Amino acid sequence: MRWGDFAVTGSYDADAGQFTPVEIVPAAEIPEPPDSPSDEPIGTPCADPDGGWRVVDESRVSLDDFHAATAHASTVEGYAASWVDMSRNPAAGADPLDPAVEAQLSDPRYTILNVAVAGDPAAAEASIRALWGGMLCVTRAERTEAELVALLQEIIDGPGVLGGGVDGIAGTVGITVVHDDGSFQEELDDRHGEGLVIVSSTLVPA
Asked: CA–CA separation, 192 vs 198, rounded Å?
């Protein structure tokens, strides 16, 4: 048995569900594609607060406080997603393998906790603020994480779907299939609205 990463070119018979390889090339010989916008770090959508981004309560900005706040955020009404923005950290951009840099990057005092909710952002912020005195940005999302997961489950149970996931930040559901000539994407756009479900094919034109 041989394991490895390869780029395989061939023909696919969708009706028979059969792929016939014509050329197999080690993946290392294929040029790396350029970074996509999705590879860029996710920032903070809130405007800078008066006085700039800063800790508002030093008594509630430990690592334990941060973990408690992020865990609580996932339970607030209308929760959609949460992520961190460490761009304000003085160590941002330095070598993360340096132990000193790694320790500073983990300092919650320099971390902006971002939370998106489909409910009331002000109510969610007040609830999270009871636990977290560090930098915080709460914004409005169109759909909850639970709604996206339910939609994913509905689609993933259908034929021809290999897998999928949800992106609560973008508010989208991603689906992977063996091959889509565009008709499945069009069907999902008609059913759920354009841009909500994104179909990716494992097989793509050579």
From this structure: 11
| pLDDT, tens only, 44-62 | 999 999 989 999 999 999 9
Report how far residue 158's alpha carbon sits from residue 106's, in angstroms, rounded to the nearest whole number: 42
- Tens of pLDDT, residues 144-162: 999 999 999 999 987 778 9
- CB-CB neighbours of 30 under 10 Å: 11
Residue 42 · residue 84 · CB < 8 Å: no
Closest CA to 4 of 25, 32, 34: 25
Other beta carbons within 10 angstroms of residue 113's beta carbon come to 21
CB distance 188 to 176 below 8 Å: no
Q: What is the pTM of this model?
A: 0.81
Q: Helix (H, G, I), strand (E, B), or coil: what is residue 18?
A: strand
